[in-house]
Amino acid sequence: MGAIEIKENVYWVGAIDWDIRDFHGYSTKKGTTYNAYLVKDEKIALFDTVKKENYSELLHNIHQVTDPAKIDYIIVNHVEMDHSGSLPKIIDLCKPEKIFCSKMGKKALLEHFHREDWPLVEVNSGDSISLGKKTVNFLETRMLHWPDSMFSYIPEDKLLISSDAFGQHWATSERFNDEVYEPELMSHAAKYYANILLIFSPIVQKLLASVQEMGLEIDMIAPDHGLIWRKSPEKIIAAYDGWSRQETRDKAVIVFDTMWKSTEKMANAICQGLISEGISVIMMNTHVNHRSDVISEILDAKAIILGSPTLNNGILPMMADIVTYMKGLRPRGRIGAAFGSYGWSGEAVKHLNAALEEMKIELVDEEGIRVRNVPDHDALKLCVELGKKIGKAIKG
Ligand code: FEO
Questions:
Q1: Which of 36, 124, 326, 393 is the most exposed place for a label (fewest CB within 10 A)?
Q2: How far is the CA of 8 from the centre of ligand 1 (A)?
Q3: Residue 271 reports pLDDT greater than 90
Q4: pTM, whole model, 2 decimals?
């Protein structure tokens, strides 16, 4: 796809990656984009680049707007390789006068590329540079989601170039949010938040408060992945506010693995109890649900219920994968419970309870339910009762 003018003399010059399916553990079933932006003013500035594999697409797009050799400034909002991978080649080509980055960005650039000869210029929150008619204001956004991350704001266009924040992993031929089906867009944005930013929710809250305090007028948000928020950008800001407050609804996610279907029978019975209390339930068997889809469903769920049979005194490996991933992303303010079948030793439920407690999830049943071998009718009734108890707790 060619360069697109998103504001007067501001162009999208990024790349679309239709094929990527795994983004460091995040399942990108519909690909992604690496967005880079070019501002043509008295000074020509390039904001971020793309993965090194997509360099030729970036270059082709820049050529449609200007001779790359005329680029004066490069602004590095974020050093992760999906945005900086093409930097060495583009810097060699255009020999920029200055490369602006945060203090942590400078450190990270040197640690990634080991090029002391690059003209790196540190900027801090509140610093600004003039491109001629347009100004670029910098706002550091440490740990959103790397220490080096920052936003660039062009006040003349009310344009926020937001690095990874407000992004989505979704490859599309459209570039603006008002050109696609909104519910699908929001589901990609929610998945992105759950998998990349959930852990940093307290920092997101502080950032949103400071943006409000600064009174930034935002007419458009241009993230480094996915669609550009041209229509009603306040909607995605409001969504980030809710997600970072970890707001939930009357919903439970039952994540389980099963060896010979006993734990699955228990999961179904717990589900039945929850439904009878009017709770929306999502059943997620680890064999058919990717970890990144599990955490997406957990984003707005009040209850997290984990089930695994016991294997080698522990839990099944696919369950361990998801539990480790979930612990890292730190869902907070949830309630939960554990269950599972076993043959002789039966430690799985104890391990799952420990994981829930580590995530500060309030246990609705401190013991959880363990069933030896295959659950009979009485055991399933206990599971239904657990589901009902969780359902009542969800409703408060
Ligand atoms: Fe899209 Fe943190 O890189």
A1: 124
A2: 26
A3: yes
A4: 0.97
